[in-house]
Design brief:
single chain, two-stranded antiparallel sheet, 3 helices, 4 strands
Amino acid sequence: VKTLLEKASLPTKYTIKNVDEFYEHFFLDKKSAKGSIKFILPNGMGNHKMVSDIDEDIVKKVLRSFGEEK
């Protein structure tokens, strides 16, 4: 997938400047309701599952892996 994106001159990296601010923007999306964010996660080849009970700290830890700038 990365190679295809690069061939099309599309970005393959993203840096999150502020994890807390980025996290709060999840709640503006239509997949959030009642203070809960609904994630659609891959579950094997061609399958997915919807999850809405992921702890905020876990989500922010993953977001930080995208290189929060200080």
